[in-house]
């Protein structure tokens, strides 16, 4: 959808900002906001006063806040960042800043919050609308320029106070700031609703994929094949000729490196839990490491048809088979299954089946507060193995069917990515004066 533009523009004097509406005032954030306000205004309050507590994981990438944790003021006054209702918080550390973690604070207990020291706090001054400031921090220039100016060592880079203070933007009159914020509230909510619908479609397709795999590796492809009782309550019947066997008798299971070696541009890919998702390997946050720093005594090098299995954390038990693209990559902290006595792809599909995940791996992974799985436990998982001929048939069938589902998922995820890009572009255009929303009917729906 196209929006009207301002008729009277002028050079802002800021290279990235270019022309802005003539009646907008260009100035730095420090003249519009109080940056990182002091705690002095709360030190005289009761030490037992309950306040909201927000560690980094309680702040989302689209302005969400989880306000389910409170603490007494005395326990957070030292060593945490202070903010109150109406303040805008922005993550300062990588990758949280790049990912968009931040929010406009509302509904804080007793109007007060404390949280991670990795937040910057922006408090609007008189004449400046807090929601407009929030949307400035959501804009592409704020995020991209801030990322470029981060300082610190790899993995510990931070946005400095000076960037926040000196970030220069054009400011419309207060009433216009409020109008722009209301416009963006409505339009971003519509876009978020579209994204949520598409993410539901993806979830349904992924459940269908898992169910398809589960049936194939526990019941086979032929509905007329003779069946027998598996002897396992949660599984029921399996094909008569299939054999139950522990994974350890089919494969060699070992651990990856553990501590990652030094990173190196153009080095070997290091596959970690963050790169594994339901049978697929993703390049999100893919680390590249120096091959000279890899201790080959532990044999961490992955080969085609190895299966990498997540060892701990929220995705414990998830797995993916190594494609030729990642032959020679390095296994990180997780486990590696090298199949010797079966079709490796059949075993990989079996490890993704719902019965195995929910009734075997999950039993092991939840035995402690922190989900965890070790090589002995993984090796004791029972698989049902048909003849090599049927293994190959099942693999061919699942390769074809899952490829179709994966293609549909990829298409929808591409649509989601475009919606997210459009969302940020709309925010950027509105807060930099590239579109004029004063006369726009906010009720007009966003088009897909």
The number of helices is 10
Rounded radius of gyration (Å):
27 Å
Shape estimate: elongated
Uncertain spans:
none
Mean pLDDT: 92
* Class by SSE composition: alpha+beta
Beta-strand percent range: 15-25%
Biggest sheet, strands in spatial order?
4-11-8-9
Per DSSP E runs of 2 or more residues, the count of β-strands stands at: 25
Q: Sheet with the most strands? A: 4 strands, antiparallel
Question: Between the first and last Cα atoms, what is the distance in angstroms?
Answer: 9 Å
Helix content: 25-40%
Structure description:
The chain is α+β, with helices and mostly antiparallel strands. It is built from 10 helices and 25 strands. The strands form 9 sheets. It has a 4-stranded antiparallel β-sheet with strand order 4-11-8-9. The protein has a 4-stranded mixed β-sheet with strand order 6-5-10-7. Helix 3 packs across helix 10 and helix 6 runs antiparallel to helix 10 (388-431). It is elongated and about 80 Å long. The chain starts with 8 loop residues before the first strand and ends in a 17-residue tail after the last helix.
Describe the structure concisely for a colleague.
The chain is α+β, with helices and mostly antiparallel strands and 448 residues long. The protein has helices at 73-76, 96-99, 130-138, 140-148, 161-166, 174-219, 344-351, 354-365, 375-379, 388-431, and strands spanning 9-11, 19-21, 25-28, 33-35, 50-54, 70-72, 81-84, 88-91, 102-104, 112-115, 119-124, 168-171, 227-229, 237-239, 243-246, 251-255, 263-271, 276-277, 280-281, 287-289, 307-309, 319-321, 330-331, 335-339, 382-385.
